[in-house]
Design goal:
The protein is α+β, with helices and mostly antiparallel strands and 284 residues long. It is 24% helix and 31% strand. The protein has helices spanning 12-18, 65-75, 103-116, 143-154, 180-189, 268-282, and strands spanning 5-6, 26-27, 33-38, 41-47, 49-51, 55-59, 85-90, 96-100, 121-125, 128-138, 159-166, 171-179, 191-194, 197-203, 205-207, 251-252, 257-258. Strand 11 and strand 12 form a beta hairpin.
Amino acid sequence: MAGPRVVNVRFRKMVECALRGAVEEIILFDMDMQLVEEGEKWAAITRSKKQKAPAIIITNKEKAYEDILRDLKSKIKGDRVPEGIKAIRKTRTGDMIVELENEESINALKKEIDKNICGANVKILKGKKTVLHIYDVDAVTTAEDIVSAVESLTGEGTAEVRSLRPMEGGRQAATVDMEEEAAAKLIKERSIRIGWTQCRLKERVEVNRCYSCGSINHIARYCKEPPMGEKCRKCGGEGHKAAECKETKTYCWTCKTDGHRNASFKCPVFRDAVRKGERRFSTR
C-alpha cells in the first residue's frame, strides 16, 4: 500500500475490522487536513482552526476581574441570568470571558450587561477561529493598533492578538486569532496595511507533534521511535525536568541536534514540513 487511506470517522471500526492485516496504518482526518509525503512517510498537516464555544469578553479598565464578576452576579439575578452559561474565566489581560452555548444566550447576557453594568465594554466572540501570522509590523505598533486595523476591514470583535514578538530589522510579527469568515477575507488579500506598513500575512499551519518521542509528522499513538521518557524536554539531558533546567543549550527532538528548540522554525525538518503544508493549502 503506497500511503494511508482517508477514512470517515463514522466507519472507523468497520474499516479496521475489514482491513485488519491488509494495511499497516489507517489515519483519520477532517476536511481541513492534508497528507504531505515525506519520502516514504506521510505527515498529517492541518489548518490551524480552534473550535471554541461562543463567548463574550467583558472589559472594565477601572475594575479588577473579581470586582467585575462580583458586580455581574449582584446585579443580574434570578430569571434574568441567561441559560446556557458554560464557563466564566479570567483572560491573560485580566478581562472576563463568559462562554455560552448559543448566540441567543450571548445576546441575552449582553443586553443585561448593557442595561445594568456601568463602564463595561462587551465584545462578542463567535465559535470557530482561524489563526493568522502577520509579519513586517513596525517596532512601535501595539496589539491594539493591529486589532484596530484588522477590525476596520473585517468588523468589530473579529480579532484578538495572541502574541507580538520581535523580528529582524526592528520589525515585529503578530499571531492573531480571528473569526473564520473574517480571516478568509484577509487570507484572500495576503496582506494588510497597519499604520505606514503593508504587512504580509498567512494562515498558520499546524504540524502534528508526537508527545512520546518529541518529533513531528506523527502522533504518539503511531510512534515507533524511542520515547523521551524522563529526559529533559529542553536540553535532552537526564535527571531533571525542563522547568528545572539550568542548561544554556537546547536540544531538538525532531532533527536530533543541539542549538535550537524542538519544532521551532530553526529546525530544518519542521520548517520544511510547514512550508509544504502552506504550499498544499495555497493550491486549494
